[in-house]
Amino acid sequence: MGKILVSACLLGENVRYDGQHKLLRHPQLEQWRHQGRLVPFCPEVAGGLPVPRRAAEIRQRFPILVTDRDGEDLTPAYLRGAELALEVARRENCCCALLQSRSPSCGRDQIYDGQFRQVLIPGSGLTASELMRHGMALFDESQLEQLIAFMQIQDLHAA
């Protein structure tokens, strides 16, 4: 049975920039947790950033630049967190990931525009991009039904 790499904040860990979490409650997640199939991971903390910390956004893509509102370059921590997420996903044999939307690390389809205006643009965070580049299926918290269907197919193939 496949495992799922999950943004730690979605599992109730207080690792977000504001020291809070975004606990996602769903019976299927509880079942997977009891089965040992969820692998919690926060790429920002793993990359060396503290909790709490200033909010960050991707300011530019080429070359990549992630900063906080004051312009402090946080790119190395974000890149390290993305690399570690991939390492953990591979080591734990994760078949997919459930990530926090809009995050400069975990955002899958949309991220903030890098100007700290609360404007969303198409794009993905550094960890999401790294996982996708290596062929991992990604879901965010609004896609639980799709994740459940994906896992049902994975479990059928594993049986």
Please give a quick description of this structure.
33% of the residues lie in helices and 21% in strands. It is built from 5 helices and 8 strands, in the order βαβαββαβββαβα. The longest helix has 17 residues, at 75-91.
Please explain how this structure is put together.
- Helix 3 (about 75-90) crosses helix 4 (about 125-135).
- The chain has helices spanning about 25-35, 45, 75-90, 125-135, 145-159; strands spanning about 5, 40, 55-60, 65-70, 95-100, 110, 120, 135-140.
- The protein has one domain (about 5-159).
- Helices cover about 35% and strands about 20% of the residues.
- The protein has about 160 residues and is an alpha/beta fold.
- The strands form 3 sheets. Strands 2-1-5-8 form a 4-stranded parallel β-sheet, with helices on both faces.
- The model has no long low-confidence stretch (mean pLDDT about 95).
DSSP helical segment count: 5
Shape verdict = globular
Distance separating the two termini: 8 Å
In the sheet with the most strands, the strands line up as 2-1-5-8
Backbone CA Rg: 15 Å
Number of domains: 1
Q: pLDDT below 50 for ≥5 consecutive residues: which ranges? A: none
Percent of residues in beta strands:
15-25%
Task: Tally the beta strands.
Answer: 8
Q: What class would the helix/strand composition place it in?
A: alpha/beta
Helix % is 25-40%
Order of helices and strands: EHEHEEHEEEHEH
Q: If you average the pLDDT, what whole number results?
A: 97
The biggest beta sheet reads:
4 strands, parallel
